[in-house]
Design goal:
The complex is a heterodimer of chains A (468) and B (92). The two termini of chain A are 86 Å apart. In chain A, strands 1-2-3-4-5 form a five-stranded antiparallel β-sheet. The longest helix of chain A has 77 residues. Helices cover 65% and strands 5% of the residues of chain A. The radius of gyration of chain A is 43 Å and the shape is elongated. Chain A has 468 residues and is mainly α. Chain A is built from twelve helices and five strands. Chain B is α+β, with helices and mostly antiparallel strands and 92 residues long. Helices cover 29% and strands 34% of the residues of chain B. Chain B has a five-stranded antiparallel β-sheet, covered by helices on one side. In chain B, a hairpin with a 4-residue loop joins strand 3 and strand 4. Classes of the chains: A mainly alpha (468), B alpha+beta (92). At the A-B interface, helix 11 of A face strand 1, strand 2, strand 3 and strand 4 of B.
Chain lengths: 468, 92
């Protein structure tokens, strides 16, 4: 069986299954509705029958069945027609009742019937006012006239029944269409998903079988050949499908080779970039790593969509090729961090969150930067680096200007201008509640703990390494 | 008496504290002044912030970074001083 035929068969089966389920589901609503209507029409329609109908439909809504307001009239028409049927049949079952010609001209005259179902008084000289709007003929009415009247009634009744029946059929069809439209759409959507899943399952089965075929073709081992044949037999794959599976495996292999080449080339380019970023800013390395992963994921996703569309459109070979590319790319995206160690190390470094961790990260970044050649540059570097660390790890947005001293927000802020003292020799001293920051005129940075005078961080300046 | 002078005077008073204290006074031209007091292995600070024109009092913990706020904030010097002294007494 060709792939196209196979896909078409799957589609047809899915569609037919969807229709069957649609009808079965719809029946769960229609059958009780029919029973309810039968119960309603046991007696002449009550004045509030529309309210009863609305109440019944409201009870069905939680079960998932709903008639759109614009379609409600179809159901109401159906009930009115059945009410007419009931009255006509009730009359025809009365063997002892033969209507007059005059009454036959308006057998559905509801004006003659009161809302409680009893007959209304009418000024008819012939006899008692009958039920259902028809007039009983007097017993002494001429026999020929009775026969003629009976024949006329039968003819008219047949015509009426045909008319009613035709209308009823139309009404029922319209009703079912209105009721089932929404449900059918839902079930067809489900069927569409199932169809796609079955296509994917077929693809996976074919992929596995193709790998086995490739292995058998490579090793020519009787065991591998037997395994391949068994797999094909279990899947019901004939020779053409097997050829496709082999072609698929070959496509996977080719795509893997292409992707590997791309990875090598990408690694050659991205590796040094990531390392350069890492030297300057670990955040940059993380960004590079995430960007590479993100790019791979986006391309894999696009390939998968292309595969789905191609398979849905019947372009099976093209779909298989896209799916194979998506598969290999997804594997590479997952394995990428393992292959790109510098970026992976940066990406997997534990995220600091507490103040000591953030302080440690601040010192680490500061020490990794190129030393400054003057105090102002060192101060700028401190401010920028502390902001970077806090932006990434504190989870507290920076406020400009910083919050008042009596309303701190938990974020570390660089020393403000009123905390700074500029010395005549070009050096700068910044005081904080725990630290004294000494920025030498040659660009050195020394951060001491005030109470213990312990040096917590030191970086020599670009022009000297003297510690003050 | 200006705030800086009050802090310097408090530093002098603390030199007569029953137990040995480590006392440092730091100030910058803006008027910002810190009185650092160490007792045992703990540290406390009373700071005058001219921009906010108030006094912050807090314990300085070993794991803190470049925070700016204080646990206790006073508009006047005397209650800030009392708070610092009570914290020192508790730390004895």
């Amino acid at each position: 069986m060709k792939d196209d035929d196979y896909s078409r068969k799957l589609l047809q089966e899915a569609y037919e299954d969807g229709c069957r389920r649609c009808d079965a589901d719809l029946q769960q609503f229609v059958t009780p509705l029919e029973a309810w209507m039968d119960q309603l029409l046991q007696e002449p329609l009550a004045p509030n029958w529309r309210e009863q109908l609305n109440e019944y439909l409201a009870e069905q809504e939680p079960k998932g069945y709903r008639i759109e307001p614009e379609n409600l009239w179809v159901l109401e028409e159906e009930i009115l027609l059945r009410d007419q049927d009931r009255r006509v049949l009730a009359v025809s079952n009365r063997q002892d009742t033969v209507p007059s010609r005059a009454s036959l001209l308006e057998p559905m005259d509801r004006a003659n019937q009161q809302t409680d179902g009893t007959a209304a008084k009418r000024n008819d000289p012939v006899g008692e006012p009958p039920e259902h709007g028809f007039i009983r003929l007097p017993d002494d009415y001429p026999t020929t006239a009775r026969i003629a009247a009976a024949e006329a009634w039968e003819t008219l009744q047949r015509q009426l029944m045909e008319e009613v029946s035709r209308e009823r059929t139309d009404q029922v069809l319209r009703l079912r269409e209105a009721l089932g439209d929404q449900l059918r759409r839902k079930l067809l959507a489900e069927a569409r998903v199932e169809r796609r899943l079955s296509v994917v399952h077929s693809f996976v089965d074919g992929f596995v079988a193709g790998l086995m075929a490739l292995r058998a073709a490579t090793t020519r081992s009787p065991t591998d050949i037997a395994a391949r044949d068994e797999a094909f037999h279990e899947l019901g794959i004939d020779r053409s499908a097997a050829a496709n599976a082999t072609k698929l495996a070959a496509a996977v292999a080719v795509t893997a080779a292409e992707a590997a080449a791309l990875l090598v080339a990408g690694g050659a380019i991205l590796g040094p970039i990531a390392r350069a970023f890492a030297a300057y800013s670990p955040t940059g390395a993380e960004v590079a790593a995430y960007a590479a992963q993100g790019l791979g994921a986006v391309v894999a996703g696009a390939k998968l969509r292309a595969a789905q569309e191609a398979i849905a459109d019947g372009r099976t070979d093209e779909g298989i090729h896209h799916a194979a590319e998506a598969f290999v790319l997804a594997v590479l995206v997952a394995a990428g961090p393992l292959l790109d160690r510098p970026a992976a190390a940066a990406a997997q470094r534990p995220r600091a969150s507490s103040i000591p961790q953030r302080l440690q990260e601040f010192y680490r970044r500061l020490g990794a930067q190129r030393p400054s050649s003057n105090a102002d540059d060192a101060l700028r570097r401190i401010n920028r680096t502390l902001d970077d660390v806090e932006d990434l790890y504190s989870g507290i947005p920076k406020k400009v200007p910083p919050p008042p001293i009596d309303m701190t927000d938990g974020r570390m802020y660089p020393p403000q201008s009123d905390f700074i003292m500029r010395q005549r020799d070009g050096s700068i001293i910044a005081e904080t509640r725990r630290h004294k920051i000494l920025l030498g005129s040659e660009g050195s940075i020394t951060i001491r703990i005030t109470r213990t005078d312990q040096i917590q961080f030191h970086q020599p300046g670009a022009r000297t390494s003297h510690v003050q | 008496m200006c705030s800086n002078a009050q802090i310097v005077e408090l530093a002098s008073e603390l030199r007569n504290w029953p137990t040995p204290l480590q006392i440092f006074v730091r100030s910058v031209p803006s008027g910002l002044t810190f009185l650092d007091v160490g007792i045992g292995n703990r540290g406390f600070v009373l700071a005058y912030h001219p921009k906010e024109n108030g006094f912050g009092v807090d314990e300085v913990l070993d794991d803190e970074g470049f925070q700016m706020g204080y646990k206790h904030w006073f508009d006047e010097f005397e209650p800030a001083k009392d708070k610092l002294l009570s914290m020192l007494r508790e730390a004895q």
